[in-house]
Automatic annotation (TrEMBL):
Xref: SUPFAM superfamilies: Nudix
Keyword Coiled coil: no
Protein name: 8-oxo-dGTP diphosphatase
UniProt KW keywords: Hydrolase
Gene Ontology molecular-function annotations: hydrolase activity
InterPro entries: NUDIX_hydrolase-like_dom_sf, NUDIX_hydrolase_CS, NUDIX_hydrolase_dom
Record domain Nudix hydrolase: where: 4-79
Keyword Zinc-finger: no
Species name: Thalassobacillus cyri
Length: 132
């Protein structure tokens, strides 16, 4: 996952391409990029306090990218899906097992909404996003 902020007059897709390039030096514009919807969350009784657009990019398994790598935002490293879906990922990590299977396996786009109270996931809802 790469997190970033959109610049003025930048689309979400342009933003993710730029942020991935800035943070990893990987140019995902040469791959198929699939719009998978949005994830939003509320924390401690706020209706919405954060959110992100979600895109899926499948990079060939033979792609050579050495990690762990220290970057400005922290330590960048590849993680196996099993690690990401581990029961002991709390807070934001707790949200991932709810939406990741849909992102990886469904053709549809969804709006995923999570509620976190006292650093614990307390509610998860999703609905299909209909595109024209």
């Amino acid at each position: 996952m790469v997190f970033g902020k959109m610049e003025d007059n930048e689309t979400p897709l342009e933003c993710v391409i730029r942020e991935v390039k800035e943070e990893t030096n990987i140019d995902i514009s040469v791959y198929t990029i699939i719009d998978k919807g949005v994830i939003t969350w509320g924390v401690d009784n706020a209706s919405v306090t954060g959110g992100m657009y979600v895109y899926l990019v499948d990079i060939e398994e033979s792609y050579d990218y050495k990690t762990p790598k220290k970057v400005d935002e922290g330590i960048l490293d590849w993680k196996k899906i099993q690690w990401i879906l581990e029961d002991k990922n709390f807070g934001v990590g707790e949200m991932i097992p709810h939406f990741l299977p849909d992102i990886l396996n469904e053709e549809k786009k969804y709006n995923h909404f999570c509620v976190i109270e006292n650093a614990k996931l307390t509610n998860y809802e999703f609905k299909e996003l209909i595109t024209n």
